[in-house]
Amino acid sequence: MRFVAFQSPRGGRRDRTMGVLIEGRVAPLTDIDSFYDDILRWREAAAILESGELDLAALTLVPPVPRDARVVCAAINYAKHGQEAKLDAPTFPNLFARWSAELVADGTPVPVPAAEPDGLDWEVELAAIVGATLTDVTPEAAELGVFGYTVANDISGRASQLQATTLRTGQWALGKNVEKSGAISAFITTADAVDVGNLRLETVVNGEVMQSGTTADMIFSVGELIAFTSRHVTLRPGDVILTGTPDGVGMARKPPVFMKPGATVTASVEGLGSISNSIVDSRQRG
């Protein structure tokens, strides 16, 4: 089953809707917050629908999770990416947070801030959407608690990230939360419809393939990432786990290559689709 999030024409406080895709058309279900309050109910409701009333092409797509969703990201979770970054493979999941306010959907322009004069970097990622309340769970239980999967692009500001790591207390908050940089697909494919063990991930910038790897290179599985996170914080339906990126990032190239205004980036995950975003100058911030 495949769900999609879109802007509701009604507006108001709950202005984003979750629908189910049926033969290329969309059947609306409920607002996103209500959907994640009772996923089982809405999945059952979607399962009995036979047709969609809305034209997918006419909808404005939005991030498919609540505005207050936690976005937990795994650093150096692909062995080859660790090698290109000259970093040792972690012995436990190395996690950082994204701000959900910076999540944007397919087609949203991403501005380059003044703090990143060389441009922005790309990181295609498999994103897991949590579908249950998870506290201190095993990896097996964690996998059962995944609602579905989608594609994300962890667009990064390397100047800010590298500046922070010159300090002993270095952290990645600003470099990993550049304005409107958390690109994520509006479509979610339910976990029962996809095997994430060996999916091809690719990033294409201005028509050139920059990343091409598979989830088989992941150091920690989706279940292991979620289980580790749940030991520290309770995960709730709608929270997002970005599972890491394969090798091929711009920062690791010789010389480094970054996306400047005018560039277009497309991130794709096999079987889950793709997202494309244009890179624009800082005048389009806000």
From TrEMBL:
Organism field: Trinickia terrae
Chaperone as UniProt keyword: no
A Gene Ontology molecular function term of the record: metal ion binding
UniProt KW keywords: Hydrolase, Metal-binding
InterPro entries: FAH, Fumarylacetoacetase-like_C, Fumarylacetoacetase_C_sf
Protein name: Fumarylacetoacetate hydrolase family protein
Pfam family, one: FAA_hydrolase
Record domain Fumarylacetoacetase-like C-terminal: where: 71-280
Record-stated family: Belongs to the FAH family.
Names of required cofactors: Mg(2+)
Domain of life: Bacteria
An annotated GO BP: small molecule metabolic process
